[in-house]
Amino acid sequence: MTIRAVVWGENIHEHTNAIVGGVYPNGMHTAIAAGLNEHPNIEATTATLQEPEHGLSEARLAKTDVLLWWGHKAHGDVEDEIVERVAKRVWEGMGLIVLHSGHFAKPFKRLMGTPCALKWREAGERERVWVVNPRHPIAEGLDDNFVLENEEMYGEQFSVPEPLETVFISWFAGGEVFRSGLTWRRGAGNIFYFRPGHETYPTYYDANVKTVLKNAVRWAYNSQGALTSIHDAPNVPVERALEPIVERGPRLHKAGEEGYK
Amino acid sequence: MTIRAVVWGENIHEHTNAIVGGVYPNGMHTAIAAGLNEHPNIEATTATLQEPEHGLSEARLAKTDVLLWWGHKAHGDVEDEIVERVAKRVWEGMGLIVLHSGHFAKPFKRLMGTPCALKWREAGERERVWVVNPRHPIAEGLDDNFVLENEEMYGEQFSVPEPLETVFISWFAGGEVFRSGLTWRRGAGNIFYFRPGHETYPTYYDANVKTVLKNAVRWAYNSQGALTSIHDAPNVPVERALEPIVERGPRLHKAGEEGYK
Amino acid sequence: MTIRAVVWGENIHEHTNAIVGGVYPNGMHTAIAAGLNEHPNIEATTATLQEPEHGLSEARLAKTDVLLWWGHKAHGDVEDEIVERVAKRVWEGMGLIVLHSGHFAKPFKRLMGTPCALKWREAGERERVWVVNPRHPIAEGLDDNFVLENEEMYGEQFSVPEPLETVFISWFAGGEVFRSGLTWRRGAGNIFYFRPGHETYPTYYDANVKTVLKNAVRWAYNSQGALTSIHDAPNVPVERALEPIVERGPRLHKAGEEGYK
Amino acid sequence: MTIRAVVWGENIHEHTNAIVGGVYPNGMHTAIAAGLNEHPNIEATTATLQEPEHGLSEARLAKTDVLLWWGHKAHGDVEDEIVERVAKRVWEGMGLIVLHSGHFAKPFKRLMGTPCALKWREAGERERVWVVNPRHPIAEGLDDNFVLENEEMYGEQFSVPEPLETVFISWFAGGEVFRSGLTWRRGAGNIFYFRPGHETYPTYYDANVKTVLKNAVRWAYNSQGALTSIHDAPNVPVERALEPIVERGPRLHKAGEEGYK
Predict the structure, then answer these.
(1) What does the alpha-carbon distance between residue A175 and residue D149 come to, in Å, rounded to a whole number?
(2) pLDDT (tens digit, 9 = 90+) per residue, A137-188?
(3) Which residues in chain D are contacts of B166 at CB distance < 8 A?
(4) ipTM of the complex in this document
(5) pLDDT per residue over C130-184, tens digit each?
(6) Are the C-beta atoms of residues D129 and D102 closer than 8 Å to each other?
(7) pLDDT exceeds 90 at position B103
C-alpha cells in the first residue's frame, strides 16, 4: 500500500520575497513533499496555483489519496470550479490536510461552512505545541510538547466547527493560545488542520512538524475507495421498499421522477 | 424577552398543487408561524421566495433572532447573495431551523459544507420519531416517541457533519431509519435540522411537531446579541502583545498591513 | 423561576492553613455561594464534607438544581454512597459544576470514566483564560480573555473525555496550556468543569470568575424535572409492541421476567 | 503486525440453556474468536468468567491489544479489581469492544460513567442495521444495511455519552430504533459498542457481523504502545518550568510534595 499524496502550493511568496525564497529555494510545496517522501509508504508529488487547473485536474484528483494545501496571498485566485472539485473528492473519501494560512483557503472555508478567522501577529515569537490527545495517530512519536522558536502567532477565537477531536493546542510567548491541530470528517473524507508553517521561517524542515505531517497523511488516508454515491439522493420506490408497505395518501412526485435539488 | 422568529417559505407548491393548497390554504409558512405564535414569548412573522430579496433584507435579518426555512422545488432560485447574508447572520448568532426538504436548501448546504443527501420515498407511510436525548431542551414535553401516520420517508446515510447532539431518530414502516433531529453550532449560531414536514401531509398542524418547533426556536435563540467580530481576522501588533515580546526574525507584512483573505 | 444551587466545599484548608483561612475566612464554599446569590434567579446554599451525609442527603439533592463541587485534600473521605447518589441525580438532570482541584473528586471521575489527571505547579503565575467559544452561554459578558494574576498552573494532557464543547483555554506564564472550560452531558445532566480556583489565591472574588460561575449555573440548569426513568431498562412485551409482530424463535427470559443487570 | 485480541465470555448460558448450548456448543467466546482468527493479522484467544482472575491477569492484559466483552447474566460476579484493571488498560491504549448485553457490563459502565440502560424485547424479530457512516473503518465491506432475521430488540433511549461517531443505527420490526454502533475514546483507548448478539440466535456466525467485529478490532488497535503516564499527575517545579518564571505568592504544597488524589 502506497499513499498518493499531493502537496498543493500557492507558490508565490517564494518568488516575490527574498526571505521566503531563501528558506524554500525550490518552493514550500517541494520541501513539504520531500519530507513526506522520506517515508516508504507515502508517494508525494506537488501541484501549484500556476499550473492548468491549478494542477488539480479531475484525473489527478481521482488518483489522489490525500491532498495537502498551503496558500496565503492568492486565495482569491483559486477557481471556484476547482474548489468544488476538491470538496467533492473530500466527500468521496480523499483526505485533506490544511496548513497554516490555508485556514482562509477556499476549499477549507467551503468544507467548514464557517468564517475560519483568527487573530495573528508576525513577530517570530516562540510557539509551544502541546499534545492534548496522546496516542492519537497524528501525535505518534511526539513528546508532550515541542517548540518552534520562531513562528507567526495565531490566536483564538478560531471560528471553525467544533472538531471531532482536538489533537494540539499552541502556547505563544505573547500570551495567546490556539487549537493547532483539529480533525473533522466531512462525508467520507478526513480533514486535519495544522497551524504552524509561516513562510518566512523554516518550519517545514522541523523534525516534529515533519512527523506530524507524515502521521496526518497516514491518518487521513482512506483505503476503501471513493464513495461516489455520496452525491446521490436516490428515490426508493414503494415496490422496492425493504419492508412491504402500501402506498397511502397523496404524493407530489410521479413514479420515477427525480427529486428536487 | 420576546424571540423574533421568521418563517421562510418557498411558497410554490401551495399554489401549484391542489393537495398542498388544500392542506395549507394560506401557505405552509403561515401555518408554521401560527403555531409558533401560540406561545407568548415568540413573535413569528413570515418571508417568502417571491418577495424582494426573498423577504430577507439586511435590515430584516438584523432584527431576526431565529430563522426557520422550508424549501423544496426552487432551491436553485434562492439568490446566492441572500444565502451568504443568512450564513453571515448565523455566524453572528442568529438561530437557524431547517425543515424537511430544506436539507438541500442553499443556506443549509453552505453552513454544513457537505452534500446533505439522503434516500427518499413518497408513500404516506408511518414515521415514528424517537427521542434519543430526553431532557434536551428541544425534546421538552414529548413522550419517548411520537407517530406521524403519513409522511415521506427519508433514509440514511444523511451526509451531514457529525452533530453536536442527536435528539431524534425516526423509524419508517418501509424499513429505513433517519437522524431526524440534529444540532450544530456554526460560529455563534445554533442550527437545528428537523426532518418531518412533507408538503402533502398536515404535519405542521401536529401537536408534537408544533412542540418541537416551539422548543427549537427557544433553544436556538441567543440572547447575547450579534457577534460581528466573527468576520474579522485582526492583527495584534507586537507593541500591543499581552505579554511583552520583542520582534525577532523576518516578516512578510509591513506594520499595520491587512492580512490576506 | 429560581435555580436552587448547592455549593459543596471540602472545608479543610480554610481551617488548617492560615493563608487559605485568611483569604476565605468563612470558607470557600461560602464565598462562592455569596457570589451566586448576587443574582436574583439563583438561590445558593452550601454543604460540606463534615456534615452528615456530607450535607447531601437524598432529600437535599432532590431539591438541588445545580451542584458545585470544590474539593482537594480529602477526596478519599467522600463516601462512595454519596458519590453514587450525586451521579444518579446528575443522570436524572441535576447540573454539576466541578471546580479546580475537583478534577480528582470522586463524583467527577465517576461521571467521566477516565483518570482526569493533569500537570500542576504552584508558583502564583499568571493565567490568561481565553474564550474559544464566544456566545456560548457560559462565556456571556466576558471579553475575549481575562487574566488571573496569581494562579496554580494546570497543564495538558487533561485526561477527560472529548467534551461536547470547549469554552475556555488557559495560557500560563510558565509555558503550559489547559482546556479550562469544558462541557459534557451525562444522562439528562449538564456538566461543566472550570479550572481556576486554587485555595491560596482570591480567585473566587474575581469578577470574571464570578460571571463564569453564574453563567454556568444558568447553563447547567434543567427546567424539565427529574428523568427518573433513566435508571430503568424496561421490557417491552411482544403484545405491547408498537408495531404488530409475532414472536419467533427461542427466548431466554420468561414473560414478565426482569432483565439482568 | 499481529493484533492480539482476547474475547471475554461470561460462559454461563451455553451450559445452562439448551438452546444457547445448541447454537454455540463450544461457547460464544470461542465462536467469536474463531471468526476473528479467519483474518491473518488478528490472533484471538479467549478468557472466561470462571478462570482465575476471570482470565484477565495483569500479565495477560499487558499483552492484549483489543479486548472484546460479552456478558449478560452474571455482570455482578465480575470482581471490581478486574474491572479497574480493564479500565486502566483501556486508558493506556487497549481497545475495548463491548457486545450486546455487555451494555450493562461493569467495565463498560465504569468507562461510560452513565447508566447505559435501554428498552428490550425478546421476540426474534427482524433487525436492520443501517450504516450511517460509510467509509468509517468499522463499516468497511458492508452494504448500506444488513438484516439479522431474528434478534432481540434494544430500543432508545440508550443512556450513554454522546459518541465520537455514530456508525450504525438499527431498525426493528416492532417499531423501535437503536444506535447500534458507537465509538468513544477514553484516555488512549478506543471503545466500540456493537448491539447485535443475543445468545439464543446464531448472530456471531453471520457474515456481516463477523465483518464488523474484524473491522472493529483493527480500528480499536493502537500500535503506539501503552500510555502509562496517563495515570500520573506530575508536579512541574518552578525551576523546571519551560518558560522562566519566578515563584510568587503563597503556596500550599512544600517543594517536592505529592499532589492530593
Answers:
(1) 60
(2) 999 999 999 999 999 999 999 999 999 999 999 999 999 999 999 999 999 9
(3) 162, 166, 179
(4) 0.96
(5) 999 999 999 999 999 999 999 999 999 999 999 999 999 999 999 999 999 999 9
(6) no
(7) yes
Distance of CA B104 to the CA centre of its chain: 11
Quote the radius of gyration of chain C (alpha carbons, Å): 21
Best mutation site among A171, A182, A185, A195 for testing chain C: the one with the most C CBs within 10 Å? A171
CATH number at residue B12: 3.40.50.880
Residue A29 domain flag: yes
List all residues 6 or more positions away from B7 whose beta carbon is below 8 Å from its beta carbon.
B29, B30, B32, B33, B36, B44, B45, B46, B47, B68, B70
Instruction: For residues B179 and B165, give the distance between their C-alpha atoms in angstroms, rounded to a whole number.
Output: 10
Q: Is B173 in CB contact (< 8 Å) with chain D?
A: no
Is C162 in Cβ contact with A162 (below 8 Å)?
no
The answer, yes or no, to whether residue D254 has pLDDT greater than 90, is no
Helix C207-220 to helix C28-37 angle, to the nearest 10 degrees? 70
**D23: in domain:** yes
- Which helix (H) or strand (E) segment is B168 a member of? strand B165-172
pLDDT of residue B157: 97
Residue D177 with chain B: CB contacts under 8 Å: 128, 130, 132, 169-171, 177
* C74–chain B Cβ distance below 8 A for any pair: no
Q: Any CB–CB contact under 8 A between C134 and chain B?
A: yes
- At residue C249, the pLDDT reads 79
Compute CA distances D114 → A62, A161, B132, C106, whole Å.
44, 27, 14, 14
* Residues C215, C216, C221, C222, CA torsion sign: positive
Q: In this structure, what are the phi and psi dihedrals at residue C130, rounded to the nearest 5 degrees?
A: -100, 135
- The torsion of the CA quartet D251, D254, D257, D261, rounded to 10 degrees, works out to -40
What string of DSSP letters covers B98-109?
A: EEGGGGG-HHHH
- pLDDT tens for D66-121 read 999 999 999 999 999 999 999 999 999 999 999 999 999 999 999 999 999 999 99
Into how many domains does chain B fold?
A: 1
d(CA B63, CA B209): 26
Q: Sheet of A165-172: strands edge to edge?
A: A42-48, A3-9, A66-70, A95-99, A189-194, A177-186, A165-172, A119-131, A145-155
pLDDT category of residue B50 using cuts at 50, 70 and 90: very high
Domain containing C53 equals 3-116+180-228
Q: Is residue D30 within 8 angstroms of chain A, CB to CB?
A: no
Within-domain flag for B198: yes
Please say whether the beta carbons of D149 and C249 come within 8 A.
Answer: no
D218 in a structural domain: yes
| Band (A255; pLDDT cuts 50, 70, 90) | confident
Q: In terms of pTM, does the model score above 0.95?
A: yes
The number of angstroms, rounded, from the C-alpha of C234 to the middle of its chain's C-alpha atoms is 29
Which cell numbers hold the place of C202? 482570591
CA–CA distance, A13 with A73 (Å, rounded to integer):
8
